[in-house]
């Protein structure tokens, strides 16, 4: 007689049956594992290594950001040269500012295309294409003779190249970290500050010694040499099962009850950031009557502050909570505008403001990825951030023109010197403060309560 013996092991039903075969005693049993489901046992979820090769990926992303957004931030050097020398006759200040806005706006608006290409060909293919297009666009800008040629080359083509390089990066780095995710993403984001510091100096020196055309060519060659090895060394973890959703366009994120507050934060924080970063040197020269060298020094201080501030914000965020850190430092950026910049009548006070603004003004760029991962999870991070980049197009495109329009309006009212910037500075500070307040909605979604002091 065959007698089944039933037991349970690790939540699996184990049926042991007597199988009287030749050479086996009548009381010997053969265990046969029959799961509660017919599927094979799933592998345990993959955990992020929180280090290892992930730090190499972080350094590579630092270099990518330095050679892309770092180079773009030095647009202020080109802007000064265009305006001082009337390089493209008939072009207005707002048109020049529009070129700078178009670069970032186009880079962000192609996020669905970048995600599609990444899904279709792998993340490295669009990045390599972006490096080639980005390099070619700077060579084309070197030979621009009209404003429209400049807009197409230094504006639109440069933005396309940067978008193809930048968009695939953040979800990849997030796969490598859990506890230190904000720090790693902050280090990567700090590359834009480091690049801005280097390129603002290199660009100004190249223009003064070699001329505008060679300044573009030198920048193009430097970017190419930095980007090629960085792109080739980046690895993702999808081959180990760390899959992530990079669907090109999922509109559900616009109405997500937790994520809606994140993109509202992006709208307001970036409106403040763009005008603040690009206008400080102009305020120094036009408002206070300082020299071009002093204005360039302030730009360098802002860049150095970003390089230090973004990793530092990431380090703090990993300890007090990603949303808490984003909200706090965004508020500090606005407070520094309303209290320090608004009252700045000397070079020394502007230096203090530049340090604080450099450390905190770019909080969005360093914190947007870890905050997004906190809301939607790492798996859906790429898809959600594609929508976040689309929303971010608006402030990047219109912030600087709005700021210049406010300065022009103030001058029409008879305000001169620093007074002409008062309305614009107030607008900048208010945008930062409102942006920080929107993140209270995100805290409410994550925590289920309104306790501001709770870690989240």
Automatic annotation (TrEMBL):
Stored PROSITE patterns: MFS (PS50850)
Compartments, as annotated in UniProt: Membrane
Membrane topology: Multi-pass membrane protein
InterPro entries cross-referenced by the UniProt entry: MFS (IPR011701), MFS_dom (IPR020846), MFS_trans_sf (IPR036259), Proton-linked_MCT (IPR050327)
Transmembrane segments: 52-82, 94-113, 125-144, 150-170, 182-202, 214-234, 254-276, 323-344, 350-376, 388-409, 421-441
Gene Ontology CC, one term: membrane
Pfam family, one: MFS_1
The Major facilitator superfamily (MFS) profile domain, residue ranges: 54-447
Taxonomy, superkingdom: Eukaryota
Keywords of this entry: Membrane, Transmembrane, Transmembrane helix
Listed name of the protein: UM00103-like protein
Organism (species): Dacryopinax primogenitus (strain DJM 731) (Brown rot fungus)
């Amino acid at each position: 007689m065959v007698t089944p013996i039933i037991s349970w092991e690790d939540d699996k039903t184990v049926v042991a049956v007597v199988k009287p075969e030749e050479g086996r005693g009548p009381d010997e049993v053969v265990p046969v594992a029959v799961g509660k489901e017919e599927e094979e046992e799933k592998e345990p979820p993959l955990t992020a290594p929180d280090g290892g090769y992930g730090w190499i990926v972080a350094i590579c992303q630092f270099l990518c950001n330095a050679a892309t957004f770092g180079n773009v931030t030095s647009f202020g050097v080109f802007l000064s040269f265009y305006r001082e020398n009337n390089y493209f006759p008939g072009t207005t200040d707002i048109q020049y500012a529009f070129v700078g806005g178009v670069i970032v706006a186009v880079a962000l608006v192609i996020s669905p295309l970048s995600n599609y290409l990444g899904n279709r060909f792998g993340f490295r293919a669009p990045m390599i294409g972006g490096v080639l297009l980005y390099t070619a666009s700077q060579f084309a800008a070197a030979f621009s003779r009209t404003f429209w040629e400049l807009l197409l080359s230094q504006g639109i083509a440069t933005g396309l190249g940067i978008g193809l390089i930048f968009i695939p990066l953040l979800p990849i780095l997030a796969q490598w970290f859990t506890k230190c995710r904000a720090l790693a993403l902050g280090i990567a984001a700090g590359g834009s500050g480091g690049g801005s510091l280097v390129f603002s100096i290199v660009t100004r020196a190249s223009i003064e010694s070699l001329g505008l055309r060679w300044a573009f060519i030198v920048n193009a060659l430097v970017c190419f040499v930095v980007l090629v090895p960085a792109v080739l060394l980046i690895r993702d973890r999808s081959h180990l099962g760390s899959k992530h959703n990079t669907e090109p366009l999922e509109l559900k994120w616009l109405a997500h009850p937790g994520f809606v507050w994140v993109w509202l934060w992006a709208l307001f924080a970036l409106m403040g950031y763009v005008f603040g970063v690009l206008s400080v040197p102009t305020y120094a020269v036009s408002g206070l009557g300082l020299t071009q060298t002093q204005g360039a020094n302030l730009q360098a201080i802002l860049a150095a502050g970003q390089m230090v501030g973004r990793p530092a914000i990431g380090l703090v965020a990993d300890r007090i909570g990603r949303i808490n850190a984003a909200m706090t430092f965004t508020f500090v950026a606005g407070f520094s505008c309303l209290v320090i910049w608004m009252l700045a009548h000397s070079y020394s006070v502007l230096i203090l403001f530049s340090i604080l603004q450099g450390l905190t003004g770019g909080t969005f760029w360093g914190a947007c990825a870890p905050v997004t991962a906190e809301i939607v999870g790492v798996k859906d991070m790429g898809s959600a951030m594609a929508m976040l980049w689309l929303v971010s197009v608006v402030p990047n495109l219109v912030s600087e023109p709005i700021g210049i329009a406010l300065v022009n309006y103030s001058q029409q009212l008879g305000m001169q010197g620093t007074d002409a910037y008062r309305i614009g500075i107030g607008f900048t500070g208010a945008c930062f403060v409102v942006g920080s307040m929107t993140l209270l909605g995100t805290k409410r979604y994550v925590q289920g309560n309104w306790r501001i002091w709770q870690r989240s």
